[in-house]
Amino acid sequence: MVKIDAIMGWKKLNLGAAITEPGSASLFKTGSWRTQRPILDKEACIRCGRCWIYCPEAAYSPNGDGYFICNLDYCKGCGICAEECPVGAITMVLEEI
Amino acid sequence: MGKRIGIEVSIAVAEAVKLCDVDVISAYPITPQTHIVERLSEIVADGELDAEFIPVESEHTAISVAAGASATGARVYTATSAQGLALMHEILFIVSSMRLPVVMTVANRALSAPISIWCDHSDIMAERDIGWIQTFAINGQETYDLTFHAFRVAEDHRVLLPAVVNFDGFTLTHVIEPIEMAEKEAVDRYLPPFQPKLRLDPDHPITMGPVGVPEIYSEARRQLEVSLLSSKKVIVEAWEEFGRIFGRYYHPIETYRTEDASTILITMGSATETAMLAVDSLRDKGQKVGLVYIRLWRPFPHEEFFEAVKEAKVIAVLDRAISYGMGGGPVFSEVKASLYNLTQRPYIKNFVAGLGGRDIPIENFIEMVDRAEFSAANGLPPTYEHLDVREE
Amino acid sequence: MLPAEAKEFTGFKARELPEGEYLVPGHRACQGCGAALAIRMVTKALGNRIIIANATGCIEIISSAFPQTAWAVPWIHVAFENAAAVASGIEAALKVLMRKGKIKKEKITVLAVAGDGGTADIGLQALSGALERGHDFIYICLDNEAYMNTGIQRSSSTPYGARTTTSPPGKKGIGQVTWKKNVAMIAAAHSIPYVATVCPTYYLDLMNKVKKASLITGPAYIHCLSPCPTGWRYGTNLTIKIGRLAVETGVFPLYEIVDGRVKITHPIRRLKPVKDYLQLQGRFRHLGDEHIHEIQERVNKEVAKLIALEKFGSFYKTALSYF
Fold first, then answer.
1. B218 — pLDDT class (breaks 50, 70, 90)
2. Is a pLDDT exceeding 60 seen at residue B61?
3. CA 20 to 30 Å from B286, out of B59, B169, B293, C120?
4. Which chains touch B (3 or more CB pairs under 8 A)?
């Protein structure tokens, strides 16, 4: 079960248990679900951004040099980026424990 | 002071909604509620009220539209009856728990089967625990007045809960009554513009209706419960203010000739005025009989109820609904529960009458008093009886 | 009629896609979730001047477990069957509050989101009502072809032959025995200004259609095939590929219907065999050649129908051709 911080009593709860902090799920690191991680070969990368647009987690983001870097805090290791990379620049490797 | 005119009660309710300057009305026809939304559609079509009138495809959608509009910050109104209220059931809990101050008029009507368009209280009694403020009117003037009150209380930041105003199908909905109509200026003084505390707004993105994990569900429900229980203070305050502005005063529990009464009738809704005539007639004969009628059904006003009946030895409760499998009606259950902790409890007897539009004449109330007093005097078990049902 | 703004919109460019993320990382969708990916693209296309009404379902539960929310835009969940009704209320409230000067006048897109259960089954009435009333909103059905949230039960959107937990193949059964309900065409029958089918594999097509839907005044219905590794039984890395094959085999053709005019937006004249699509998924693994043939025949017929609709140019002309 997820460890839940910020659990409060009913008096502090927003009306109807509404959540007023947008995007707070970013506190929830889904990277721990992963059994394999993507490794990017920058030499081969053509900076097309497929990995970025096809990531269901929005774990990839542009790094300013035109590359797209995967944030392993959130990457669940689905492997779509490696599968869809048109030049095979991403490989999935098993997470070592 | 406003003018007193002869007007059908449903039409008067629509006029009250107009004076409340609602923003969104969701409407679906069902007898005997339909005249309210018909009139509102005319009011909007004539440009007398700037509102979105949404003729939906079901009551489930009527209340869902109301939820969406209220969450966006609009003042929202809808009305329904019987099967329509039952179809809304699922969403009613959500509206209260999300703290959306929707106001709804319910024209009380029997539930199917057999299908009946006529009055009883089965529809709203099935919705006792939805977390809405619920009031009952005994005549047209009250229905009209309670409509303003419902908006004022629902939208009060100390409350922020939806509210139902109950009035009896046909016996009130379709009756033309002299009603003192309010002036717009007075309504504006009474009812400030709706200021939502939280709303769906791209400038402040919030998430409404999240998944209530076990760690928070109890707190969310407790919040609703406390808000409803503590709304009584605001409800009473708003009635006091209503009295100051409009000259008509309302209370959670109303009494009629209860001074020194040893037997008290308990009623809700339009049968109350008939019961008053019965009390008059019994008083004329020297019987110490009084009447208590429940105006505020949720939150239930325990203290006021106790104050009103504490001197009585015998109580006869009228129910226009059956609590199936429990024996008796829902008002009976609540009244008994409310008084259980007293050391000196009165004798409480229940009468189920007036189902599906069956008339409850004065004689019925006299019979209730007689039977209750007889049962009490002879130490019979305080059970319930049906009045006017052919038992063969 | 398309407003000028919609006509001027020339489409997103692959190299200049909006960077905003409105379903943020940290949501709890399964690995390789096609629906989460699709809604990420949808919100990217729309930007942050939107309000979402979400039906109960996968996207609702993966995004909003208290006390955290994955949404960076205003979002509400009320119940399962009423996303279109709640969206109707939001749209009406925005309209009247802006008209009365109670909130500032601006273009806010109202988006209803539901799965195939919330759309094709329990929510169909509310959807039909909202489309018929003409509210200015977008309804997107994220179709993963079964009740995935409750554990892969069949819906009326589950394709023929598919194994689900309530359409199991057995000695006497082949899995789902009914053909997929075509909700996009049901929506089109309401004569609404915009209907489209999309799939996240074709992300530019998806984002362009969603954007176009927002620029059109009135209801828009978008049906999104959302491949689901958990329910369809394929590797989590294959979501995009499965979507591509669904389109390339004609199982899920991409098209749009603007003011009744059908336009196929991805060529379907030279199709791959449906077997290429079916054989990658565990939910179809039990099917024999006979059933695969049956599915191929059905797809051929549906595709021919769509091509005919496009050829005649519109529903209107199709109807006239009978006389």
1. very high
2. yes
3. B293
4. A, C
pLDDT, mean of residues B242-264: 98
DSSP state of C120: I
Closest C-alpha to C68, from B219, A21, B205: A21
Residue A56's closest chain C neighbor by CA? C37
ipTM: 0.97
Terminal Cα-to-Cα distance of chain C (whole angstroms): 26
Taking the domains of chain C in order of start, what are their residue ranges? 4-320
Domain for residue A4, yes or no? no
Query: Which chain B residues are closer than 8 Å to C71 by Cβ?
Result: 205, 207
**Nearest CA distance, B61 vs chain C (angstrom):** 5
Give the total residue count for chain C.
Answer: 323
Q: For domain C4-320, give the CATH number.
A: 3.40.50.970
Q: For residue C17, what pLDDT is reported? A: 95
Q: Does an H or E element contain C316, and which?
A: helix C315-320
Say what the pLDDT of residue A1 is.
40
Residue A77 located in a structural domain: yes
Q: Which of A12, A15, A19, A28 to mutate to test the interface with B (most CBs of B within 10 A)?
A: A15
| Domain CATH number, residue A74 | 3.30.70.20
CB–CB of A10 and B205 under 8 A? no
3-state helix, strand, coil in chain A (%, to 5): 20, 20, 60
CA R_g for chain C: 19
Q: Is residue A1 included in any domain, yes or no? A: no
Residue B294 and residue B253 in contact, taking contact as beta carbons nearer than 8 Å? yes
Distance (Å, rounded) from C-alpha B184 to C-alpha B20? Answer: 9
What is the sign of the dihedral through the CA atoms of B221, B224, B230 and B235? negative
Residue A55 included in any domain? yes
Q: Chain A contact for C61, CB < 8 A?
A: no
How much is the mean pLDDT over chain C? 95
Instruction: Report DSSP state, residue C169.
Output: B
Rounded to an integer, the average pLDDT of B65-77 is 98
- Closest B-chain CA to C92: B52
Q: Based on the structure, what is the number of domains in chain A?
A: 1
3-state secondary structure of B76: strand
pLDDT band at residue C6 under the 50/70/90 scheme: confident
- CA C125 to chain CA mean position, Å: 17
- pTM: predicted TM-score of the whole model, two decimal places: 0.97
Q: Which domains does chain B have, with CATH numbers?
A: 4-246 (3.40.50.970), 253-386 (3.40.50.920)
Question: What is the distance between the alpha carbons of residues B41 and B48, in angstroms, rounded to a whole number?
Answer: 10
Split at pLDDT 50, 70, 90, the class of A96 is confident
Residue C3 banded pLDDT, cuts 50, 70, 90: confident
Tell me if chain A has a CB within 8 Å of the CB of C28: yes
> Three-state secondary structure along B164-226?
EEEEECCCCCCCEEEEECCCHHHHHHHCCCCCCCCCCCCCCCCEECCECCHHHHHHHHHHHHH
- Give the percent of chain B with pLDDT over 90: 98
The parent domain of residue A39 ranges over: 30-94
Residue C11, pLDDT score:
95
Helix (H, G, I), strand (E, B) or coil at C167: strand
